[in-house]
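Retro notes, structure queue

What went well: the backlog is down to a handful. What didn't: a couple of records were mislabeled last round, so from now on we paste the full input next to the output in the thread. Example, using Rhomboid family intramembrane serine protease from Pengzhenrongella sicca:
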Amino acid sequence: MSTFDAAPPEPPPVCPRHPDRVSYVRCQRCGRPACPECQRPAAVGVHCVDCVREAARAVPATRTAFGGRARGGRPVATLTIIGLCVVSFVLQLLVPGWTSRWAFSPAAGEVEPIRFISSAFLHSEGNILHLGFNMYALYLVGPYLEHTLGRWRFVALYLLAAVGGSVGVLLLASPVVTATSFAWVSGVVGASGAVFGMFGAILVVLRRLGGDARQIVVLIGINAVLGFVVPGIAWQAHLGGLVTGLALGAAYAYSSRERRDLVAVVATVAMAVLLVGLALAKYASA
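Corresponding output:
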């Protein structure tokens, strides 16, 4: 009898993502083994996570009416902004000097431009209703705008409206400090400028989509009157944020389908340049 070398047995199939796991179940698309952790149920058999991810990339992203990427689930950007404001308010109560360190005044903004934005995440330490009202207003309009405009447009709108509010305070403040006027050095805090920017944007968006904007008009009117009647309210920030929100909202909502992404980017950059230019011009003239 002749002798021959027996072929070594083939090793059992293992999952390519987890080589320590034997799997006899194979992906119906690529044919590779997939362990239970990497299996995804399909219409026929199972698919591996890599094939599922590749198929998801091939599916065109769903867009909103204004070109934003439609996302399900929670309004992450809105909740993040609210969370930052709440955390900052807690720090205001616990950390000495936190408010004065980040509050905006025309004099402080000239030295530290970050205050044009940082002040929008602060609120009056002695009045929790200041924080509560702004966050409630943001929660009412924020999710709708975040979904309709898309996440990056919404974040840009909020931040630029916050800057617009500070610029409004700067433009309407007198650099001359007298015994009765401290506008140039008085600190301003609150997300009201940014919230008014949201009001302006949602007003334009609702009109563009044919919705009923009367409630927003009434809300803007009531708050505008309160700014002149109730002492301690920076109506200049409300005005600056509102104008910024109206302008950006119009650019986002009324651009053509073919050019809406380009117009959104150009309008955002142009607004940022305009606000910086206005601030520099005011400082130069002062």
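Agreed that this is the format going forward. Reviewer comment attached to the example: The mean pLDDT is 86.
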